[in-house]
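Quiz preparation item.
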């Protein structure tokens, strides 16, 4: 039974789910918005919010922590460009915008973007 377990499995193993999350997070950091399915965007949101909160404390330790999951370019952009914009904000760094369903399979689509 799955009592008390958080998160969706997306039909993937644990390593594949974490890779999907990491790649979506890197794309969001580099491009400021990502179009994906609604379920994947909802799963990405709490993780990326915690990443941005860590990036607000721009220390060597936090950069090393972020480097475990993100590419060097994404860490640099997060710490130098994105995090300073949110210093006065206590959370809610992302926005989910629902889009029309995907034509090929009818999947619910959403755009996750960083709030300006």
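Solution:
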């Amino acid at each position: 039974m799955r009592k008390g377990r958080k998160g969706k499995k997306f039909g993937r193993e644990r390593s594949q789910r974490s890779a999907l999350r990491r790649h979506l997070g890197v794309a969001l950091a580099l491009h400021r918005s990502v179009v994906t399915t609604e379920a994947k965007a909802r799963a990405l949101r709490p993780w990326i919010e915690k990443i941005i909160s860590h990036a607000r404390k721009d220390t060597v330790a936090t950069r090393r922590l972020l480097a475990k999951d993100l590419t060097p370019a994404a860490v640099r952009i997060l710490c130098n460009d994105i995090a300073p914009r949110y210093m006065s904000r206590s959370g809610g760094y992302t926005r989910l915008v629902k889009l029309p369903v995907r034509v090929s399979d009818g999947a619910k689509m959403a755009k996750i973007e960083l709030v300006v």
